[in-house]
């Protein structure tokens, strides 16, 4: 079996394990919601799923983050533990009730609106990051 077909099989099984249908339309939608570059086409993702091509490393990283596997596993397979291991951030334990509420509301937004909120916050952070006066914690 060639490496492109093996990649396609790993991609499909990772999508299924994450609870997604292995259809090109699903992959196109979910990938483009998470990728900040030029959107990929239906035909491109179809080639990934059929084993006709393998995405660039940058796109492979986005796929891996989305599907909670390592880029190495998606690209090469292997017996390596394929779960992405990220340490818990300390900020998660020190949120105020207001911050918890804000994050809960954010999580209820559809992905396109989350992307907009992310861009707005990022813009404010770049514009006012050094001059922002943060309120005292309660």
UniProtKB/TrEMBL annotation:
Transmembrane segments: none annotated. Residues 40-74 form the HTH cro/C1-type domain. GO terms for molecular function: DNA binding. It comes from the Bacteria. SUPFAM superfamilies: lambda repressor-like DNA-binding domains. InterPro entries: Cro/C1-type_HTH (IPR001387), Lambda_DNA-bd_dom_sf (IPR010982). This is Transcriptional regulator. The lineage of its organism: Bacteria, Pseudomonadati, Pseudomonadota, Gammaproteobacteria, Oceanospirillales.
């Amino acid at each position: 079996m060639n490496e492109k077909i093996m990649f396609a099989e790993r991609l499909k099984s990772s999508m299924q394990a994450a609870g997604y249908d292995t259809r090109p339309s699903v992959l196109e939608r979910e990938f483009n919601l998470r990728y900040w570059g030029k959107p990929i086409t239906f035909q491109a993702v179809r080639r990934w799923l059929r084993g006709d091509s393998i995405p660039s490393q940058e796109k492979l990283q986005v796929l891996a983050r989305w599907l909670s596997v390592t880029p190495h596993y998606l690209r090469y397979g292997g017996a390596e533990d394929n779960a992405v291991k990220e340490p818990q951030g300390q900020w998660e334990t020190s949120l105020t009730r207001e911050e918890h509420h804000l994050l809960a509301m954010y999580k209820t937004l559809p992905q396109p609106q989350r992307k907009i909120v992310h861009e707005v916050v990022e813009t404010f952070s770049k514009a006012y990051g050094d001059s922002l006066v943060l309120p005292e914690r309660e």
